[in-house]
Amino acid sequence: RGSMATTERLGPSRTRRNSNKNILTRIRHGQISGGGLSRGTEMSEALLQERDHQAKWHGIPVMLQRLYDSSHLNSDLSHIHSIIKEVASFLSMEAMSFVTEERRTAQESTSPNTYTFDLFGGVDVSLQHVGTKAYRADVSDDIVKDCLSVLYNCCICMEGVTKSLASRDDFVMFLFTLMSNKKTFLQTATLIEDILGVRKEMIQLEGIPNLPSLVQSFNQQQLANFCRILSVTITEPDLGNDDKHTLLAKNAQQKTNLCPSHSEVNQVALLNIPGFIERLCKLATRKVSEASGASSLLLELQDWYTLLDNALVLDTLMQMATEDAEQSSTESPDESSLVTSPLRHSLPQSMKIVHEIMYKVEVLYVLCVLLIGRQRNQVHRMLAEFKLIPGLNNLFDKLIWRKQTSTHVLHGQNQNCDCSPEISFKIHFLRLLQSFSDHHENKYLLLNAQELNELSAISLKANIPEVEALVNTDRNLICDGKKGLLTRLLSVMKKEPAESSFRFWQARAVESFLRGSTSYADQVFLLKRGLLEHILFCIIDSGCKSRDVLQSYFDLLGELMKFNIDSFKRFNKYVNTEEKFQTFMTQINSSLVDSNMLVRCIILSLDRFESQTDDVRVVEVLSECSLLSYMVRVENRLTILFRLVNIINVQTLTQENVSCLNTSLVVLMLARRRGKLSFYLNALREKEYTEKYPGCLLNNFHNLLCFWQRHYLNKDKDSTCLENSSCILFTYWKETVSVLLDSDRTSLCAIASYIDEAYMDLGRDFLEV
Fold it and tell me: What residue intervals traverse the membrane (predicted)?
């Protein structure tokens, strides 16, 4: 009888649980199949209330049903708003928990209220009430704002909701129109950002209704936040992994995609908006009134950072603080209004600084992407005209590289973590400088008047003509103050800790100033500021292990030393012991992919110096410099050539390692000039037989050169970089490759002559991809 009683007690409860599961199963089945129940609100309110407590739905299905019942033209809007706010309170708590606990699996168990809300049609009813604004004028901004917040919280907890919204093109376009309303801007912007992040197809900015007038209606705060959204629309999906994609795959993709990409079209659309670039420059360079206690910024952010992962979220928080002020004004509040707001006392004193930094991160990113796009020259002219560089120079000490007295750990990471807004800001700043200076005459805008005069004096003393770009520099657009931006960067670069991740970006930014046609004056300008000694210290004495940092220092050193006799004298003075020289060569030989650009510069410099033996200074350096003495030995150059050809093949060529192929070509072009090409090719053949893999090395090199022709002789390919960096005419590059690929086996300069008939065409099939 006891057993019977237990069964009787359990029976109804088990039945109710099964009933709850059956309801959920029926709804999900209806949503998938399109038949039967498609949302839970199609059931009676009585049934929903009966099941609510047992299923722990917290009344969400009943509230949603009441929202559906109120979805008509004459509905009571205040009643609707009260329901939406009640539902929103459940979802916002889950979203906050999801973010702070860093949960990334959208499951019923982790976000039960959000799951229930979605299952019972909450997303659809929210969309319905957001859309009502378009044809019902009395729908308040507060209703729309709360509905958008509900949708955003759903997106945070359930990726499926985000993907579903992203697939609705009409809804996405409608969201952009809502951004014209200052009261709903922040909620709309945060939702759009989430949606665009998961869209399979990039949105076309030209399709946004009245885009120019929309952007022009934004205040500076809104424009900065809009840049966060724009970053998704102007960036190629694989931009961050550019070096990881093979050139073979890229070339094949370019053949199939003859039209401009969506991101390129979007970049043009932005540049066509009147005043857009000018406003971004003003945002990037505006100053911040630093409050007292700014040095404790990182410490104050400890409890806030999980919320403040971007300026949009921070703005939402600040909007909460100024809601009372907003009611009496349609304009977006100035940040200074926080001083009188009730929540002001809860916000850190230095919040305005980190707020401004977050804005600038978004703006600098957009400017950087535009600078490396197809419209580069147009963007360059505009950035110069609107004085971006002198503006950043004025911010350098007080904001960009301001002193930090706190070593507080931020968001569980150290100061070299990209999670920090300040770290991200510095990296974006350095990337912008790199893009701005790279192979462009506007690079001299990074100097002030005194520094430009110094360059002129260096050229005059060396009895060489001034660089044309220097002569043509508009001095109304250059840096002002005691130091230019390049000089300020050099100062912080030399003080950077050995383990700092900034070293890589700093070296890249300075190297870009030197890239292009070699300028003796530019090199001496940097030599006088101790740059060469700093680089050698980092390579030889600092214990640096980072391959990325070492590669950036090798590349910079190569540009600094190329064809410059003073640089080689300074090198010899610093590397004054056999131990130091061996350490230096060990670093070079440990990875030729990283150091081959430096090797190329040394070989090119040696070749030029050997033709200038009537100069006593050159003869002296040739006889004393350990680096030149090493490279003058043919066996060492052959060893380098063997390794360069061996570490790459057509299938593994990337933007990062294709330089190895070009460096090997430089070695052979210089040999050809001296009539020794056949000697080098024969040495490669002997190396193959010594290593017992006849045909492999030379066939691989033959395949690489076939690819080189297809890649560099493409009509869209800019070959001036090869010509400028080597001071060898591109016609000679082409001729040398043609000679090497000659099919005439009697030619002593053709690779085919050194491959036995039995081993010809080894691996040739791999080229046809």
Answer: none
